[in-house]
Specification:
Elements (H helix, E strand, L loop, with lengths): L1 H13 L1 H4 L3 H24 L10 H16 L1 E5 L3 E5 L4 H23 L5 H20 L1 H4 L5 E2 L5 E2 L7 E2 L3 H23 L2 H11 L1 H6 L4 H27 L1 E2 L6 H14 L6 H16 L5 H18 L4 H12 L9 H6 L6
Antiparallel strand pairs: 1-2, 3-6, 4-5
Helix pairs in contact: 3-8, 3-11, 3-12, 3-13, 4-5, 4-6, 4-11, 5-11, 8-11, 9-11, 12-13
Main location: membrane
Membrane topology: Multi-pass membrane protein
Subcellular location: Cell membrane
Length: 348
């Protein structure tokens, strides 16, 4: 049943460009889709390991800058007259390199920060994002600083036997974002349903019990951070090649807050949660803008979030899933049962 619902949802989303002719709404859907991918990557940490990263936008921005600089090329001076010169590469190479670089940064942050917990971890992630933002702002020779990197080329996908398919139009970019979102969703779904996924949930639900059955805390959390950062880097790359201009404002804290809202409202720890929350809070400003002043829009935005959190404290998707289970006469599994059943006798 879940597979059928997923396939129907993908088919419905794939049909949107065939009947939607409003370029403004198409642009909103594309940018919302990109941030949904970022929210899905954040959910892997927040929803399945219980680690709140308020610097997640750093990986998004690192992916954007890596992909942009790879496709634009650069010439920077180091150690006096010595220069590092990089000739432009195809944008598709920048996309994959963005995933690798963001993942490596996730490994670095994970190894350093997962030795602490709680508020200390949050502070480390915020500090990392701020450091990266300052580097992008002040390393003018490489990033152009506040002047921004512009004329970033569109992603071109090589087709065997044909010319490259250049993603210039909103039509093309919509399907590109949808394809990456589906791949990210499938990857995360397979991951959280694997033995490694059970280990992540075990650490979130009962770290002492997880350690007692042989789960390596630092290794598990670091690997989750690497995968999460890599997916966020892919989203950043899509953003850079779609918008075609980026500046240090891409590291703005509001972007992380947006991803957190998408995850929490939709339901952290659920695969569909970031998608549902992302569609609601990504598209809400679009529909409020014609009928409300900017100040009223923010009030309505916050009001809807508060109502959701009060009425559906688990998030939209988990709350409705529990309601459907009760209507079918199925008792929902209490929190912590997944780990207790699957991992208590199975060492990692």
């Amino acid at each position: 049943m879940k597979l059928i619902a997923t396939l129907v949802s993908i088919a419905a989303l794939a049909s949107v460009p065939l009947w939607l002719r409003d370029p403004y709404l198409m642009n909103a859907l594309i940018t919302t889709g990109i941030f949904i991918i970022g929210a899905m990557s954040l959910n892997l940490l927040l929803g399945f390991t219980g680690q709140l990263s308020l610097g997640h936008v750093a990986f998004f921005g690192i992916g954007a800058y890596t992909s942009a600089l790879t496709s634009l090329g650069f010439d920077i001076g180091v150690f006096g007259d010595f220069h590092i010169v990089h000739e432009p590469w195809p944008p598709i190479a920048g996309f994959f390199l963005a995933i690798v670089v963001a993942g490596l940064c996730g490994y670095l942050v994970g190894r350093l920060s997962f030795r602490v917990r709680g508020a200390y971890f949050v502070i480390v992630t915020i500090s990392f994002a701020e450091v990266v933002r300052l580097v992008a702002l002040n390393w003018v020779e490489l990033t152009q600083g506040p002047l921004a990197l512009n004329n970033i080329p569109s992603i071109a996908i090589p087709l065997p036997g044909f010319d490259e398919l250049v993603m210039r139009t909103k039509f093309h970019n919509y399907y590109l974002v949808l394809a990456v979102a589906v791949i990210a969703h499938v990857l995360i779904a397979r991951l959280v349903r694997s033995h490694f996924g059970r280990a992540m949930r075990g650490l979130m639900e009962n770290e002492t019990l997880a350690v007692s059955v042989g789960i390596d805390v630092t290794r598990t959390l670091t690997l989750a951070a690497v995968i999460s950062a890599a997916i966020a880097g892919a989203a950043g790359s899509l953003y850079a090649h779609y918008i075609r201009i980026i500046d240090p404002d891409i590291f703005a804290f509001i972007n992380t807050v947006t991803m957190v809202i998408m995850v929490i409202s939709g339901g952290k720890g659920s695969l569909a949660g970031p998608i549902v929350g992302g569609l609601i809070f990504g598209l809400m400003p679009v529909f409020l803008r014609p009928i409300m002043a900017p100040e009223a829009q923010w009030i309505a935005y916050g009001g809807v979030l508060i109502v959701i959190l009060f009425l559906l404290p688990r998030g939209i998707v988990p709350s409705f899933s529990r309601l459907l289970s009760k209507q079918r006469g199925q008792a929902p599994a209490p929190d912590g049962m997944a780990f207790a059943k699957n991992d208590a006798k199975e060492p990692a």
